[in-house]
Design a protein that fits this description.
By secondary structure, the chain is an alpha+beta fold. A two-stranded antiparallel sheet has the order 1-2. The radius of gyration is 21 Å and the shape is flat.
Amino acid sequence: MSNRQGASRPRTLEAVTISSVIVALLTAVFVLQNTEDATVNFLGWKATVPLAVALLLAVVLGGMLGVLISLLRPLLAGARSLIARRSGRAR
């Protein structure tokens, strides 16, 4: 059974890599097709930027937020476990 799990990891990594490349290419095509100016309003700030810049910024910030959340989840789970142990309610 352990051989089977070990063999699936490279395939999973390959699938993630291929999916990421496809999403990146589709994003690039979409951005390049949307070059006209757009007015962006955010929390009282107003800016006129090329739509491609606004889209790229949204994609990059969304990706960064996703990575941040995926990094914080284990920390939060560990903190909850520590709190439960200290209060005598170990899971």
